[in-house]
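User: what does the whole thing look like in 3D?
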Amino acid sequence: MTKLPDNFQCLGLSGGVGGAKLALGLSKVLAPEQVTLIANTGDDFNHLGFHICPDLDTVMYTLADVSNKEIGWGQEGETWHFLEALQRLEGETWFQLGDRDLATHVTRTVKLGQGRTLSEVTQDLCRGLSIDHAIVPMSDDTISTVVHTASGETLSFQHYFVRDRCEPVVTGFDFEGIEDAEPSPGFLQALEDPNLELIVICPSNPFVSVDPILLVPGVKELIAERKVPMVAVSPIVSGLAIKGPAAKMMKELGMPQTATAVAEHYKGKYGEILTGFIIDEQDRALSASVEALGLETIVTNTVMVTLQDRINLANESLKFAKGN
Amino acid sequence: MTKLPDNFQCLGLSGGVGGAKLALGLSKVLAPEQVTLIANTGDDFNHLGFHICPDLDTVMYTLADVSNKEIGWGQEGETWHFLEALQRLEGETWFQLGDRDLATHVTRTVKLGQGRTLSEVTQDLCRGLSIDHAIVPMSDDTISTVVHTASGETLSFQHYFVRDRCEPVVTGFDFEGIEDAEPSPGFLQALEDPNLELIVICPSNPFVSVDPILLVPGVKELIAERKVPMVAVSPIVSGLAIKGPAAKMMKELGMPQTATAVAEHYKGKYGEILTGFIIDEQDRALSASVEALGLETIVTNTVMVTLQDRINLANESLKFAKGN
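Assistant: Here's the predicted 3D structure for the full assembly of 648 residues, as structure tokens:
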């Protein structure tokens, strides 16, 4: 990889599992002071009185190396005694809360109740988990992803995603509260940093993980002003989503399930601020169609199985940085 | 034991571990429709956002046969992964919340937050734990035991009991909120039941478990009106408390640590409504001094090690019933 200057600043935008893999890669190739990782909070919700931030937690657990690689969410070596006891008491068990995971939600809920911001609480949690890199919520304000479905029903994101297992046919998405929301102080600071040389959109769901981050008022404008390269990694490889409902959603929204369609979605929504795109080797044939959108393109392996895969993809994405 | 009529009604008053043992005994010798078990709620507190009722839970877990007999509180086979994770996040871990136990607190807190009463929620929890006998909080209103200490400091009960391990020297107790509290509907109903023939004060701490129950406004007066026998089992045996700080408290309050002193405490506070007293065999020599207080007295084994001990003591206490 190209040698990066010490004051190099990178911003990573991430949803849950897929995005967190590249976020981990970035944290392995960049020093803590060189990167800020922004997590989507549109899928946050209140459950059993707890303030739960699934994407934020996934990024935290991934960087803390306590994530459950087998099931893809929650903590490794997790136990479920709370949930078993809750079931006996006829409680709501559709959202699986592990015993260790609960400590995160309880700590967050207690501190938010004391009037601290989600950013401050996240910093505390990261310190507790010995995470050196900055993980920052996109906003300290409540933004709630609402899923519109073909039946006319609207669903809160976790009801759609977990309770209903992504079965309803989607017709669109809303981000309740986003009009009045502001980027979190850490997000703003990173966007305004004079040394910012790259924004990486990790391979997360474009509709429900990346869009909410970029649609926080002021974010698009700040990126446009800064003229910083922004590169997205396609979450769609060979017509399939590596993880989650992205491909299913694209189909239901009448879009082809291709990396090109993802690039078109981002171009349509964010125009000039998206400058680069990373396509998987399996989709090499699509690179011309993505380049035709005016995007600088790299074809590489984006399917991150090993830690080295994550590191390699992070290094590939850094090739889009301003100085390079 | 004497054959009891089908419509026989007994009321048991209980604090935590010691009281719960006799409560279990009563539940083994009386049908669900024959007994109501009232639990102290003066030691309830809010911790990490959870509404925790330690005595109520101990009685529930004991009757559900899920109580942890080794450590004397919480659930059997309990795990502590939540607490371990909380410690890593620098949370408050002085009050030990087990993974299974948490489900009780979460369920209670959620339902209270929905506007349901503690009595209603307790009924739900008991149903979930397959408990057939009625376990009822003394009040649905918040009553908080405050411990006055020699240093002049006042402590909430759980801070005194758990966090500070009963180390501070006590000078007295207050029950915050008790003036405006009412007995719970189930407590009132049991007190007003025309078939009520016996009230059993289980061997619990007189100052912080039994007093709060009997001091709920209206309770003493109703018992006096009903002229129902009320028998107390001494929690002090041979100068020691079987469990908990009762003997230490008596010493600090300048009382002898004897069954007689317990009987005197109750007589001084409740006068004529206490009619009987059960003394342990080891304290047989004290029975004359207890009888001298005008109390009918039985000397028997009160140290409940086996289930049969609990059943025997329950049967002994039933000898005080009106019809006998």
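In plain terms: The interface with chain A takes residues 48-49, 75, 78-79, 81-86, 88-91, 98-104, 106-107, 109-110, 113, 124-125, 127-129 of chain B (CB under 8 Å). Chain B has a mean pLDDT of 95.
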